Amino acid sequence: MTARQIADAYLATWNAADAQACAALLDRHWTRDAEYVDPMVAAAGTAQIGATIAAVRERFPGFAFTLLGEPDGHGDHVRLRWTLGPAGVPAPIEGSDVITVRDGRIDRVVGFLDRVPAEA
Amino acid sequence: MTARQIADAYLATWNAADAQACAALLDRHWTRDAEYVDPMVAAAGTAQIGATIAAVRERFPGFAFTLLGEPDGHGDHVRLRWTLGPAGVPAPIEGSDVITVRDGRIDRVVGFLDRVPAEA
Hey, how many other C-beta atoms are within 10 angstroms of the C-beta on B40? Predict the structure, then answer.
């Protein structure tokens, strides 16, 4: 898989419409014992990661993650930038994530926030 | 240790004047089985990482790594941006690294290049 394909699979998981779609994408694209960590949360395993994604989906209804720029990668590592916001307006939230892949699946993610509005 | 302290220890290792100084900094600030990976090289253990740093020192004599902006971090993770260039002129090379710390030491580094001149 290319850096772009991994980034697309990753953001598709975050953009899943509901818990069932999210679980299907976690099952397809992530390792079972994947780890996700960002400044707010640490989640281990696809069940915890699914709950983390659900919490963001509920906090920001109608928002979507969009790839910002082009992902790049080397070896098992991919970095990407993203925005999070409602459709059709400038996205208020931006971040950068580094993904480590194992056996073609997302295995470890370290996320950072690049822009957060004061009210978020 | 703060994100800034970890970033400073990391770049000090890269800026070591010679192999002996580098080995001392690796011994002080890195885990023995630390792993370093960037688009050109993967090194496992402080001996291989020291050799990687020596290769850069020999390829770019008189160049120094300088912190660009302010590092940020959460949990065991720190990200920083750096420049590499000769003293007193605009640095031609820039990168971003994500460091994972274990027991207060640098344990894993995933590096990315942000700007590389065509001739490098």
Answer: 11
Q: Do A75 and B42 touch (CB under 8 A)?
A: yes
How do residues B86-98 score in pLDDT, each as one tens digit?
988 888 999 999 9
Locate the chain A residue with the closest alpha carbon to B77: A110
Task: State whether residue B116 sits within 8 Å of chain A by CB.
Answer: no
Residue type, B6: I
Can you give the pLDDT at residue B22? 98
Q: How many CB atoms sit inside 10 A of residue B89's CB?
A: 7
Q: What is the pTM of this model?
A: 0.93
In whole angstroms, how far apart are CA A98 and each of A26, A68, B42, B64, B88?
A: 17, 14, 17, 26, 32
Give chain B positions within 8 Å (CB) of A98: 98, 110
3-state secondary structure of A30: strand
What distance in Å separates residue B39's CA from the closest CA in chain A? 5
Using a CB–CB cutoff of 8 Å, tell me whether A81 touches chain B. no
Backbone angles phi, psi at A47, to 5 degrees: -65, -50
Neighbours of A29 (CB within 10 A): 21
pLDDT per residue as tens digits for the range A39-84: 999 999 999 999 999 999 999 999 999 999 999 999 999 999 999 9
Q: Is residue B72 within 8 angstroms of chain A, CB to CB?
A: yes
What sign results for the dihedral spanned by CA atoms B86, B100, B53, B97? negative
Contact B95, B81 (CB under 8 A): yes
Interatomic CA distance for residues A47 and B111, integer angstroms? 29
Asked if the C-beta of A112 comes within 8 angstroms of chain B's C-beta atoms, the answer is yes
Report the distance separating Cα A92 and Cα A85, nearest Å: 6
